Amino acid sequence: SYRDSMIAVFVMGVILTSLLEYVTATILEKLFHAKWWDYSKHKFNINGKVCLLNSTMFGFMSLFVIEVLHPFVIDVLSKMNSLVLFVFLILAMMSMIGDLVVTAKALNSLTVRVDSLTSIVDDMKKIHAKFKLYEDEEFTRKLRISPEEVAQKLKAVSEKYGDLRVQEKIDEMQEKFKHIKRKTFVHRRLLNAFPNMRSAGSQRRDMHFQYIKKILKEKR
After folding, report:
1. Is 34 in a helix, a strand, or coil?
2. Is the whole-model pTM more than 0.85?
3. pLDDT in tens, 169-198
């Protein structure tokens, strides 16, 4: 209804797509406890969810869609058989629903992995308090770099002292690590599409989230 005015199309494109982006970011954050994108470093942003630069680009893209792409698509569809269109619609809907389900499961899996890593780190801190393998600052630094390597060293110390309970606990941790490191195509697709995704929880939780992201994005 705004096609007669390119300025109106641009302005409505800026407003409506920005509103959609803000609402989407808020819903995703509530559902999956993760921030998919963050514009906090951009000027003129609102809570890091929308920013002037992206909104302006959305305005120009809206012009392209309304003035160029939409007329072309309508022209193509008007020449197609109605039965073919119906089949295409059903396939498109099935594809979108399937993608939504797979993506939701993958995101939930990421959340579970962050929880698992948080549990592992807490257990390692308790074990480290018993053996004092490193100074506290060194222990924290090594945990940030590679908690798996720290677990292996703690296990070696526990074997030296013959502490079977600790050894069993670390064996359990290492099994959890194997699950955390399990890669899937969907995880890689998500992380490639949203490279700035981070946890919406505490700074500590986001540190664990970033570590898991690094693991999942590694080729080997």
Report:
1. strand
2. no
3. 888 888 888 888 887 888 888 888 888 888
